[in-house]
Specification:
The structure is a homotrimer of 262-residue chains.
Chain A: E1 4-5, H1 8-21, E2 24-28, H2 34-44, E3 47-49, H3 54-63, E4 66-70, H4 76-91, E5 96-99, H5 107-116, E6 123-127, H6 128-134, E7 141-142, E8 145-146, H7 154-164, E9 167-171, E10 175-178, E11 183-186, H8 199-210, H9 217-237, H10 242-255, H11 258-261
Parallel strand pairs in A: 1-11, 2-3, 2-4, 4-5, 5-6, 6-9
Antiparallel strand pairs in A: 7-8, 9-10, 10-11
Chain lengths: 262, 262, 262
């Protein structure tokens, strides 16, 4: 069965909510994508904050609207701070999102992510290799790249969503978003997005922020995917390569017009 | 009493000095803004260096022209290295500047910043909430954003400047700069600057570098504010959103012409 | 004797190989240049990965095509992870490259780099001051800048290449590349490249990736220098300052055409 396409009217509706509520998004993310992640959230109208010291991370996770955990440059010290933040987030009912970067190839971060799954992430966002690895199905990853198509990881995403009670996103040429019952697909984007570091990581931050919105979680998360694919497509049309893509992408996110977009 | 507007002739004069002396600026700053901070200093003609290991930070603070301490992503280990650097900076008469990012909402960094105030920063740069919190006056901050206007923090800035013997900058729609005796205001800029991460942090680095210049410290620091507001205004006019703002801003800083500017 | 100019036909040939093989490049680099380094590698068609936790860094260095060690923001903890990664890289025959950032002025990192030299880097890339310091010859550095010309460090580069069995690159207005027997020079580039943070560090990452290619190591490394100088020159012609240089540079790398380039 082919998943339904996420409606652009719904994406436009969520965008309006997002800008109105401006979620305060606590990002514990990797060293490579911090700036791009912050600028992506700012362009969409959210308020990002990167807080990493264990005491502070716990304090801040409780007052933030949403929390992102991205394990791209995980260290032992950072893992402990992340765990504290997730625990405080749960006590405060702050939804948290997991980005299991390169979890298929590296044991330390896979163990860490599998442990965290017991703490009920609101959402999980990864490529096919990462979602397959997290669901305990066979997978091959080469660094942070995937060697599987998003559709091939759909059974793993469904299993993971049911196991954790999470919305699971598998990104690729087509994105799939599932809550274990219903699945939607999101099309658009461009191959140039894979030649710029951090587009996936930044999407995870937007997914995290969308988990703070009222309404249906699956639809809100699918809207995040839709904005990024839409901006990626617009930016590709206006750029000469991955360098000019970056400013064009942030401009496109900033200028996404809820009405025009629908 | 309305503070005097900082003269653009003075800003142009300081810019000429800045480019001639090219202050070697030791930045101990947060993970999110490192690149933008370095590129801002380079565009203006300074020489940035990020050195963070305790032994090295102490050694380097003593040979640098100026030191910046920004607590945006403070950790226990980083706090100790910063303290060592500030202590060595004082012994070597290297002026140091404090950026108390989000100090109003997080206890660990507030304690750290309050401790550091005893070590006589040459300058302090924050938004209204941060300056109010540092002065021990009531404040509300939401993440790194301020919920107060710069003018409302002017009494706190004056008190802080007198207490520490520092030049204090409160940034906002209008920037205020005071040494506790004299206060000047700086206008310009654009709201787009708040949709790009690091414009405030980068200003703090430029303020730090300006503390290495000869002449009046208050005037030199106000000139730093003036360059950033001027470049922000030029860049906004030449950009389609926060993405294209970033390169346009660095270009504008690089091309600020001392004569034309005056 | 004047070193031969590296031929552009050879640079074009190496570029074709680079894009075909897409080296998986493990970068352990400084906090300031992570994003720009990753985007540079992606623009050229390589696959970057930043992995820093000691257990993971060792595991990943063994499966990567190449490893980069850049000491720009070295810490005690990072130094230990880097040493583990280099040791595992050697066992797995993964070539590793050293960028000794600012080694001339800071004792902690100089001791670390001198220790690492015993572990036979495939390549070393630095400015004149850094190469002079590493070779134990007198040098003066001011922060990360050099106070010596590249040509003046050529004897040091030759000595270092023979001592370590490495290809050594001294960058400057002209780049020199030597394996201790043969030396080639690479011209091009523009002064604007020194007003953007990370162009040297990104070159080191490309040098590291080129060490994974088949063929002559000296020629492959010189080709990396050639691509960066060529893209720098193109980008300077298309930009209004260091801000617009950055996207133009990444676009130029992405669009470098092997045939046209020759």
């Amino acid at each position: 069965m082919q998943p339904d396409l996420h409606s652009r009217a719904l994406a436009a509706h969520t965008l309006h909510q997002f800008r109105t509520l401006s979620p305060l998004t606590h990002c514990m993310t990797n060293d490579v994508v911090q700036t791009f992640t912050a600028n992506t959230l700012l362009a969409l109208g959210a308020s990002p904050a990167m807080v990493i010291e264990p005491e502070e991370a716990g304090q801040f996770a409780a007052i933030a609207s949403a929390l992102l955990i991205n394990v791209g440059t995980l260290t032992q010290a950072r893992a402990e701070a992340m765990r504290t933040a997730v625990e405080q987030a749960r006590i405060a009912n702050t939804p948290w999102t997991l980005d299991p970067v390169a979890v298929s190839g590296l044991d330390f971060r896979r163990r860490f992510c599998l442990d965290l799954l017991a703490l009920q992430p609101a959402a999980i966002r990864g490529n096919a290799s990462e979602i397959l690895a997290l669901a305990g199905m066979s997978a091959g990853g080469r660094g942070v790249d995937t060697t599987d198509t998003a559709a091939s990881a759909l059974p793993a995403a469904l299993a993971l969503a049911r196991q954790c009670g999470s919305v699971v996103v598998v990104t690729g040429e087509v994105d799939y978003v599932t809550d274990g019952q219903r699945t939607v697909s999101v099309t658009g984007g461009s191959p140039l997005m894979t030649r710029v570091v951090g587009t996936g990581c930044a999407l995870s931050a937007v997914v995290a922020a969308c988990c703070a919105l009222p309404g249906n979680a699956l639809d809100n998360v699918a809207s995040a995917c839709s904005w990024m694919k839409q901006a990626g497509q617009l930016a590709t049309a206006r750029s000469q390569g991955p360098g000019s893509f970056i400013p064009a992408f942030l401009d496109a996110l900033y200028n996404l017009n809820a009405e025009e977009y629908a």
